[in-house]
Amino acid sequence: MMKPPAESLNFSPIAAGLWRLHEWALDVPGRVRWIEQALELGITTFDHADIYGGYSVEALFGEALAAAPALRRQMQIVTKCGIKLQHPARPGHTLKSYDSSRAHVRASVEHSLRALRTDHLDLLLIHRPDLLMDPDELAATFGELRAEGKVLHFGVSNHMPDQLAMLHRRCPLVTNQIEFSPLQMQALADGTLAQCVDLGLRPMLWSPLGGGRLFSGDDEQARRVRGTLQGLAQQHGVSVATLALAWLMRHPSRPVPITGSGRIEALREAAAATQVRLSAEDWYRVWQASMGHEVP
């Protein structure tokens, strides 16, 4: 398999997720200030998808960049395409489906560039595996977009190792954005994270705190993991959220957790995880709490 490009994308240790930006009730100055505060914390990677907020979030972010153009040079913009939702913003979509065709990917990129008020995307991801993907056509489309300067790097999201490998052989990818948390560790078992280590790809992690279940879940697994994290967090003098993110970042694939909160305090807790170093035994304590048994 091909290695990533020599000039690989430099993610920040934590990425800011914009999935719920439309729910944060921030006016344009408020959005500008939120971006500025994230940058001040060293969070320079901003994660989007064309479908977020019913195809509205990219434009909300773009309004902030139009109001403060200098911010664009300080960040990496990530967005995703390939999911077609039935929505008034896309009247041509008659069915929820996946589409990785040249026509759809190129149209999605043009939409995202206009909405985000930028002339290039730092990273474009195929949001979900398309069962009809033609890897040769998609790789050629990526090559065209790179040659035109519209997209600098490419990756996938929610792809299994064989799906990523098929595309990576044709076009070097830089990431697989996956679900991974102390409550959801399938990526450890199915080879996804091992593949990232092998290929030198830094995975991006969505729902790294289990969608809030880590703090409020009343099931047995959530209670076990929460108790273990609380004990370790107390030892390190940090919050449970900070400790959980540090646990994820301990993996040798060097994962990039995505924090999707409009609260600056949540961003601070996330950024603090970069200063916590867990021992291998403490990492396995969390693994054991999640799995409900010791290692074989």
From TrEMBL:
Lineage, uppermost ranks: Bacteria, Pseudomonadati, Pseudomonadota, Betaproteobacteria, Burkholderiales
Pfam family, one: Aldo_ket_red
Annotated PANTHER family: NADH-SPECIFIC METHYLGLYOXAL REDUCTASE-RELATED, OXIDOREDUCTASE YDHF
Top-level taxon of origin: Bacteria
Protein name, UniProt field: Oxidoreductase
Domain (NADP-dependent oxidoreductase): residue spans on this chain: 14-286
Any one cellular-component term (Gene Ontology): cytosol
CDD domains: AKR_BsYcsN_EcYdhF-like
SUPFAM superfamilies in alphabetical order: NAD(P)-linked oxidoreductase
Organism: Rubrivivax rivuli
InterPro entries linked to this entry: AKR_Detox_Biosynth, NAD(P)_OxRdtase_dom_sf, NADP_OxRdtase_dom
